[in-house]
Amino acid sequence: MFNIDIQKLIIKSPEKELVNISLKISNATALIGQSGSGKSLTLKALLNLLPNSLQCEKDIKSNFILDFNSIGFIPQNPFTSLSPMTKINKQFFCSNEKKQEVLKLVDLDTWVLEKYPSQLSGGQIQRIIIAIALSKEIKFLLLDEPTTALDIENRDNIIELIDSLIKDLNILILFVTHDIDSVKDICKDIIIIKDGVVIEKGCTNDILSNPKQEYTKTLINSTFKNKDFRK
């Protein structure tokens, strides 16, 4: 099984330190915290997408090569993730056989390849985004609030799909979300981040049933529906 040991991740602006964390990822893991906690910066640092105005120090160990080909990314808003003027077929960069393989993984038929994004539903578009990520031989999948822009039915369907992918594919998952219902059944571990520091981490069931920090208790009691705790 793949694993990642983030021994040091420090992100600084010219004025102050924004993130200083260490953590290990060895299965499906959720990263949770209120707005401004540092979870988005952590995600961008792992993707090498931090702005030049920020300094980043990283010491990351893994049992695979962390590069463009080994990391997949599912963004928050599927509607802005594809070119609106390009058919789905041209938005994949892989063989036709691979397209068919990954579309089957996300429960889509190949007819979607001849459609433009505007001709598809939000749930279908998000499945295509996931299929594109899986078209590489990835070992690490980062999900940034993948259900926020979807209605309840599509949200539940995408969560069910992610759950099946976790079970079927030998890949690591880091799931950034404000929605406790999205992670409580599919992520084995939870990491709670506050002001750029990890304050609590462990087994999902243990954290949710017996949180140690008041901050964690507040997040759980709010069930992540309160506007103040959204990403």
Write the layout of secondary structure elements.
Blueprint: E1 4-12, E2 17-25, E3 28-32, H1 39-46, E4 55-62, E5 71-74, H2 96-105, H3 122-134, E6 140-144, H4 152-168, E7 172-176, H5 180-183, E8 189-194, E9 197-203, H6 204-209, H7 214-222
Parallel strand pairs: 3-7, 3-8, 5-6, 6-7
Antiparallel strand pairs: 1-2, 1-4, 8-9
How would you portray this structure in words?
With 231 residues, the protein is of the alpha/beta class. The protein folds into 2 domains: 162 residues, Rossmann fold; 62 residues, no CATH class. The protein contains 7 helices and 9 strands. A 6-stranded mixed beta sheet has the order 5-6-7-3-8-9, sandwiched between helices. The chain has a 3-stranded antiparallel beta sheet with strand order 2-1-4, with helices on one face. Helix 4 links the parallel strand 6 and strand 7. Helix 2 packs across helix 3 and helix 3 runs parallel beside helix 4.
Question: Can you give me a brief rundown of this structure?
Answer:
The protein contains seven helices and nine strands. With 231 residues, it is an alpha/beta fold.
CATH topology heading of the largest domain: Rossmann fold
Categorize the overall geometry: globular
Look at the structure and name the CATH superfamily of the largest domain. Answer: P-loop containing nucleotide triphosphate hydrolases
Strand residue percentage: 25-35%
Instruction: Report the span from N to C terminus.
Output: 30 Å
The biggest sheet, with number of strands, parallel, antiparallel or mixed sense and barrel status, is: 6 strands, mixed
Task: Give me the secondary-structure category.
Answer: alpha/beta
Number of strands: 9
Strand order of the largest sheet: 5-6-7-3-8-9
**Percentage of residues assigned to helices:** 25-40%
